[in-house]
Design a protein that fits this description.
The structure is a homodimer of 222-residue chains. Chain A is mainly alpha-helical and 222 residues long. Chain A folds into two domains: 3-81, lambda repressor-like DNA-binding domains (434 Repressor (Amino-terminal Domain), Orthogonal Bundle); 86-197, no CATH class. The first copy, chain A, is built from nine helices and one strand. Chain A has helices at residues 3-18, 23-30, 34-42, 49-58, 68-81, 89-107, 112-126, 134-161, 176-197; one strand at residues 61-67. Residues 162-172 and 199-222 of chain A have low confidence and may be disordered. The A-B interface holds A 1-2, 4-5, 8, 11-12, 15, 46-50, 52-54, 56-57, 60-71, 73-75, 77-78, 81-82, 128-129 and B 1-2, 4-5, 8, 11-12, 15, 46-50, 52-53, 56-57, 60-71, 73-75, 77-78, 81-82, 128. β1 (61-67) of chain A pairs antiparallel with β1 of chain B, so a sheet runs across the interface. Chain B binds a DNA duplex (30 and 30 nucleotides) through α3.
DNA sequence: CACAATTATATAGATTGGCATATCATTATC
DNA sequence: GATAATGATATGCCAATCTATATAATTGTG
């Protein structure tokens, strides 16, 4: 496989990872079978143009033929658009929430919902267009911070009562109400993620219960 | 074939045409068989990435994967590099010569050498790096303008003599000397073209007779 | 250890890629 | 003016390889 080819394939792979899409999820969106995506990413197959374009489109990438002379300038332009997002307040909010979650996970390391939440947020961070979703991100972060406060208060109370905390299954360590809130948060994040990954025919972003409706989305599995 | 695919193929085709390369010439340079190039350009075949990259490379194009968001900016950059050439004095000289030739063709519409010359000049215009060849272009334009003057003088003389101009074959309407000069001009232009298309292992540009030496070059046929 | 999700492999079928050649256009020669 | 010749592009045929369906290996989780 030529260098240029490898470079393109790597870019595709990176883009998929940045969006937090699994090969299967990407497959569903593109119509390109998952097994192909696997081969493409690993096996150095000489992919056909239609497949490449399908994959690129779904990853919000455009395949362009630019004069070599302009290649450097183009790279510069591309670089200048991507990290612009990183400086925006939306990402700051996102990072803040991510910190909160990491903090929570330190206290509740076995809570799978927290891990899921962290992963979803991380995936969200990889999306280019997340920068415009400040409000949505605040709506996500606020309840999570509230949740953290509630849990801290709870921990304080429990400390007084000195219960047998280790024996109880970890999921039971926090009241059902908070657990539900947590799951709702995961759902909201993944919902937003799906919205941003690209316009998919699904219900708008207002929080929905945590149960599944379909399995088209990326990673929005239980 | 998808729209995006078609667009890329068209771009390739245009790039080839702009370089004045025949399918066969491109084939020689890329290793991609001419029959494929034909199929690619016409038959809507789902070309493989390696072929696409080979063709692109030879046409001085880079295949880039850019975020859709940055696509417009990239287009702008590409546009801004290409026509920069169009404003340069070298291109002005080229256009001047082209005008002269068009003018001549109006008077001698059947003279195949003139058509060839015009085509060669047009192909030259499509080359990115022609902008640096002001002197060479002047060397081309000067004899052509001189040729035109000579022919105009000749036409004036003939008008007086009132010969049967229509009956004589068109090639005979101008004296052998001028015809030779014309052919020399064609050769010079195509020579320069070959030089610029990209560095190919051939003799340098000093004017050579119009006969063929090999068939590797683009269009440097008789 | 079972279960689920993600990724990799195997075999069957479709299509490209390459070779030889046909078609079409233009030029040269008689 | 007809015909041959040169060059450019398009079309059949066959091997090579990609794409697709199904399945297996791998990894993480409870």
């Amino acid at each position: 496989m030529s260098y240029a080819t490898q470079e393109l394939i790597d870019a595709l792979k990176a883009a998929r990872a940045a969006k937090g899409l699994s090969q299967r999820a990407l497959s569903k969106r593109t119509g390109v079978p998952q097994s192909h995506i696997s081969k493409i990413e690993t096996g150095g197959v000489d992919i056909r143009l239609s497949s490449l374009i399908e994959l690129a489109r779904t990853l919000d990438l455009d395949l362009k033929l630019v004069p070599c002379k302009a290649a450097a300038a183009v790279d510069s332009v591309v670089r200048s658009t991507a990290p612009a997002v990183a400086a925006m307040p939306a990402v700051k909010e996102l990072n803040r929430t991510l910190d909160t979650v990491r903090n929570l996970r330190y206290v509740y390391p076995d809570l799978s919902e927290l891990k899921k939440l962290q992963n979803s947020l991380q995936a969200l961070k990889g999306l280019r267009n997340v920068g415009r979703e400040l409000e949505a991100l605040r709506d996500i972060g606020r309840p999570i911070r509230k949740l953290k406060q509630a849990l801290e208060k709870l921990a304080g109370e429990r400390q007084g009562r000195a219960e047998q905390q280790k024996a109880t299954p970890y999921a039971a360590r926090i009241p059902a109400e908070q657990l539900l809130a947590l799951r709702r948060a995961v759902g909201t994040v993944q919902n937003l993620h799906n919205q941003l990954v690209d316009t998919i025919p699904e219900q708008p972003l207002p929080p929905r219960p945590a149960y599944r409706l379909d399995d088209d989305g990326a990673n929005d599995d239980g």
